Structure formats: C-alpha cells, structure tokens
Amino acid sequence: MSLTFRATLPERGFDVAFDLAPGETLAVLGPNGAGKSTLLTLVAGLLAPTEGRADLDGRLLFDVTAGRSVLTEPRHRGVSLLAQEALLFPHLTALENVAFGPRSRGQHRAAARSTARNWLDRVGVGELAARRPSQLSGGQAQRVAVARALAADPSLLLLDEPLAALDVTVAPALRTLLRDVLADRSAIIVTHDPLDAFLLADRVLILEDGRIVEAGATAHVLTRPVTPFGARLAGLNLVDGRATPAGFRAANGLEVPLAEPAPVGARLALTVRPADVAVSRRAENGQGFSSIGAEIDDVEHRGDHVRVHAAGLAADVAPAAVVALGMAPGAPVFLGFRHEDATVYPV
After folding, report:
1. What local confidence, expressed as pLDDT, does residue 212 receive?
2. How far apart are CA 25 and CA 162, in angstroms?
3. Which residue has the higher pLDDT, 253 or 227?
4. So what's the pLDDT on residue 75?
5. In degrees, to the nearest 5, what angle opens at C-alpha 142 toward C-alphas 233 and 148?
6. Are residues 174 and 252 in the same domain?
7. Which residues make beta-bridge pairs with 206?
8. Is 137 found in the same domain as 227?
9. What is the pLDDT of residue 31?
10. What is the C-alpha to C-alpha distance for residues 252 and 270, in angstroms, rounded to an integer?
11. Mean pLDDT of 293-308
C-alpha cells in the first residue's frame, strides 16, 4: 500500500511531506521534539493538521485547507499503531486482546479468535493465549502487541519506538520478529536507534524542528550523513553479514570470529566505531585483528580528523596519516580493527 503525506501544524513548527512506496519500511529519526511522534499521530488520526492531505492507497486519510476539512476516523483508516509500551487491555487475555482488531472489523467471534491464535503462534507466544497482561513479561507483552497490531490486517503499520522499553537481552529477538513481519508490508517506524533503522528500514527520514533535513536509502544516510544530527547518528559502522563455521562474514569478505557461536547462515550485524578502524598499506589478520583490502571510495575532511570510506566501512584518521599513506579516492588500502572493539548482534 502506498502513502502520500503532506501536513503542517504551525503551532508545533511541523511542515513535512513524503511518499511511502508499497511494501516499503520507512524509519523516522531525529532528536527529542523533532516531530517524529507528531507524524505518526497525524497518520493514525489521533491529531488533525492545520493544513495538508494524506492518501493511503487511494483512501483519503485527511484533506484540510482553509475552507475544507475532511478527516477519516482512525478506525476507518486501515492503520495500526504499535506504541513503545504494549498498552494491552488489562482485563482481556492475550487471545482476546489480539482478537479485538478483527472483531472491530466485523469478523465473527470464532473467526476473530482463529485469526488471533494464528498471529500469536506467528510471533512465538501461542502458548500464552490464556494469560492476562499482568502475567506476561515485557518481551512477551510486546510480542502480543505486535500480533494485535497485525491481526487487524492494516494497510499501514506504525511503530513508535517499539524496542525502547525492552531489556537489551529481549530486543534482538523482537527485532528479528519485526524484520520477518515487515517483509513486503508498508510500515513507518520511529526509532532513536540506528541499528533498528539499519536492520528494519529501506529508507530513512531525519527530522529536526518539524522539518525533513535528510532523507534517502538507509545505508547511504547512515554512512554518508549530510547534517550534524545525521553525523552523530552515524557514529557507528554497521555491517551486514552471516554466521559461518569460522564466525561472522560480511558480503565484502570481512571475517571476524564470534565470542558466542551462532547457527551457520544466521543473519548478523557488526558494529564498530570509525575511530576504532585503522587504515594501512598491508593486511593485518589474526591475533585479535581483522582487516580487508579495498580501494578508497572517498575522503572527507572533518576538522581535526579525516574520514576515509572504503569497502562499506568508515575510518577516522589523522590528517598526517592521509598524507603519509597517500590516501585518495582509488588508492588501495587495508581497513581493520581489533575484535574487542567490534560488537556482533543477531538479526
């Protein structure tokens, strides 16, 4: 389902326009107060714009001008909102919570409960169907919330910091679940974590003071930012890869041993700070160090340091090193880092 969105709220300094392609997941990032949640509440129908128009696959969500105001009720928009907190109905079981959406769309009780059981099974908590929210852990409750959001069969799924309230030991599993359920589904996810954007989104918008200041493909925005906030956000190298018998292996050939074994073929993501990536003229592998050879793609001067891009990695080096090694686009180099400076996450 495609979305066309344009809205202004002068009292909040909000003026945003964007399109969402069918099956695309869009990550919205920005500092506190940038307008991220305002965007979601406008799409969901919990807030009306001063002026603007939004259409979801031909269905009018709102059309507000100086002499006209058409606002489709939230329940008729075909949109589901998954909040940071699970917000389950405390007096209903997990099954009844998930069946609520299908029932509100007109399904008979038996059909709605069947749909709910299917989604609870898909998110891995089918055995908890009879429990009430007070009997669920944070991770379990958020899985039930995911099932409830999807059981309504929304045309568009909105996710507002869905992992922020979860323990770090629970978040990777839910991130993997979200990646599976978002495949080929239109979604907008608000997040503060670049790892969420990297692993879940096709495209990124960065908002500041109610305006879009940066937009583009996720990998490009997170590795080649053009705004100060984007640069702070892109403080990590994010490398996609797979588990092999030897450890982590990226598509560019970079290999790093794993502290804990992972199933062969499992998708993984590696993070390492540009400041921890070294650039040299020779390969250095073994003894706690991994490197990969490549030609330099670009050299960025950033005040007291220079950022070198090659093989999908960024390295921050001293200007003197750039001169000494003749670092320039097209020059062959090796980029590497100590294993202890990198972190590998399950996806």
Report:
1. 96
2. 14
3. 253
4. 87
5. 115
6. no
7. 29, 214
8. yes
9. 87
10. 13
11. 89
Which CATH number is 111's domain given? 3.40.50.300
Same domain, yes or no, for 116 and 171?
yes
Residue 229: C-alpha distances to residues 15, 18, 206, 265, 305 (Å): 19, 20, 8, 35, 18
- The reply to whether 124 and 25 lie within a common domain is yes
**Last residue within a domain, chosen from 208, 233, 258:** 233
With CA atoms as reference, report the closest residue to 171 among 196, 194, 201, 192: 196
Q: What is the mean pLDDT of the chain?
A: 89
Domain end, chosen from 214, 233, 252, is at: 233
Q: Give the range of the structural domain holding residue 317, as residue numbers without chain letter.
A: 237-346
Q: Mean pLDDT, to the nearest integer, of 64-92? A: 89
Q: What is the mean pLDDT of residues 161-189?
A: 81
Asked whether residue 276 carries a pLDDT value surpassing 70, the answer given is: yes
- The residue among 286, 261, 265 whose CA lies nearest residue 338 is 286
Domain containing 293 — which CATH number?
Answer: 2.40.50.100
Cα–Cα distances in angstroms (integers) from residue 169 to residues 39, 165, 223, 301, in the given order: 30, 12, 26, 38
The structure's pTM equals 0.74
- Which residue is associated with the tokens 């499992």? 266
Higher pLDDT, 319 or 230: 319
Same-domain pairing of 21 and 123: yes
Q: Which two tokens stand for residue 16?
A: 């945003």
Residues 187 and 245 in one domain: no
343: Cβ contacts below 8 Å, ≥ 6 apart: 270, 271, 272
Burial status of residue 157 (CB atoms within 10 A of its CB: 0-12, 13-18, 19 or more): buried
Alpha-helix residue ranges (DSSP H) falling in 157-309: 171-182, 194-200, 218-223, 228-233
Question: Residues 159-165: what's their mean pLDDT?
Answer: 82
Q: How confident is the model at residue 168 (pLDDT cuts 50, 70, 90)?
A: low
Residues of the chain by 3-state class (helix, strand, coil), percent to 5 = 30, 35, 35
